[in-house]
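Minimal example, chain plus NAP.
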Amino acid sequence: MICITIGRGRHSSLLAEWKAAADAGAELVELRIDCLRRDPDLKRILGNRLTPVVFTIRRGADGGLWRGDEEKRRRLIREAIVMGVEYVDLEADTALDIPRPRFGKTQRIVSIHNFKKTPQRIEELAEQIAKGDPDVTKIACLAQNLSDASRMLAFVGRTQTPTIGICMGPLGLFTRILGAKFGAPFTYAGFNPDLTFAPGMPRFGDLRSDYQYDRINGETEVYAVIGDPIGHSLSPAIHNAAFRKLGLNKVMVPIQIPVGTLKESLAALSWLNIQGISVTIPHKEAIIPLMNAVDKSVERTGACNTVLNQGGKLVGHNTDYRAAMVSLEQALGGSPGDEHSAILDKQVLILGAGGVARSIAFGLSRRGAGITVCNRNEERGVKLAEEVGCRAINWAMRAGTPCDVIINATPVGMHPNVDESPVPPAAFRPGMVVFDTVYHPENTLFLKLGQSHECITITGVDMFVYQAALQFRYYTGQDAPVELMREIVRKKLNPAKDD
Ligand code: NAP
């Protein structure tokens, strides 16, 4: 179950937002009474409850906004219990002073918050909480590294009592989602996009639609997308929708792994038995030495974006590379079974010399294309060209190089710089294939220029969806629902239009 946290300065706003949450399907709402600027009027707030309630008045010392008298705070909590709220949140020390009443059904969430760190022995916090006679134990600590978050989740899995164990901050996001697998009675989510109650708290809509939180249970297999940053990755939304469509009990969660900490982070997570990992910037190269085996696509490109856990053995693949090659072959009129690639002998100009350019260059080279690399930093472009065995040109020459295919493997034209194109209109000729790897927006200025010059275009969304579909096949052994994935990517990229 997801518990929506609501806190507003005015009674009327609190009630209005509670109604909106109830209308959106909230099953439980935490009312953060400490956010009210005036004296809380409990009759007005709790008299006609719209959903079951967690009643919370959080002190400043615990991350809340209550600045009033402590006696008064405890009196209000007692009043809420008398009024029969479903849950009260009591800090561990408060719980000692507010014993369980003899009558009434209010359940006690006894909580400890630490906004600075996650202590080494989380058990000690639980022991402290146990003295307060909890129905639900809640521990929320800031994760300073991934190992903190991993320990917190493992702790939830070990406890016998209903426990919500959360690591706050971006490193702990997955603990808020995967608690459901380890018996957490609920997780907390924000509702109002302009208000944040705890670092890293996800939004209700995302937990429900991107993670299908309520479907996660003890049997759910875990998949991850790793990178830094990772919060805006589209991978969980599309893979989870595809898992659901095929009736598979699997969930993909985002795990932020800071650069330079990949090895120890994966080691810290090994107990979680993650079945598959989608890998993104900056780990595509660094993950290769950590694999037990890699396929040819990884060997050729030196980059790995997909890891499959085969009975504890980690095997690396590169679906970016395959997706780009298949998209190009199709645009050039070829098909997968062809004896000779449709790319053979085509003149291809690659703009950029980063990870994506590198994968594409090696793929094209194998298929016999004539490749030219053109990069802003010439030295980097020349280095890639030497490795691939092709030519490099100066960035200033990019518009005057005749070619059959032009590929943008730079972020030029990406949101919010949507009025930029990596090449001017003069670079386009009718019949050329124009391929933009940028997928936000889907229809970049580069592609629009190509369309207006009667070119064949391939979008970054085509490539993104295809690489995800190939990952899905590795993860499940089944064909991905590609159109559903594409629809979700478009919806995510244009939320205002579709919501
Ligand atoms: P990367 O390794 O950081 O490389 C970026 C490349 O873009 C470098 O060659 C860089 O040139 C060049 N560049 C950056 N800003 C530039 C500018 N203002 N003008 C000219 N060149 C510029 O990144 P990557 O992983 O290769 O990703 C490249 C693009 O691919 C990303 O923007 C992303 O949108 C796209 N992508 C798409 C998919 C998909 O599935 N569709 C997947 C992954 C990535 P310097 O060497 O001069 O810095």
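The chain has 18 helices and 20 strands. Residues 460-476 form the longest helix (17 residues).
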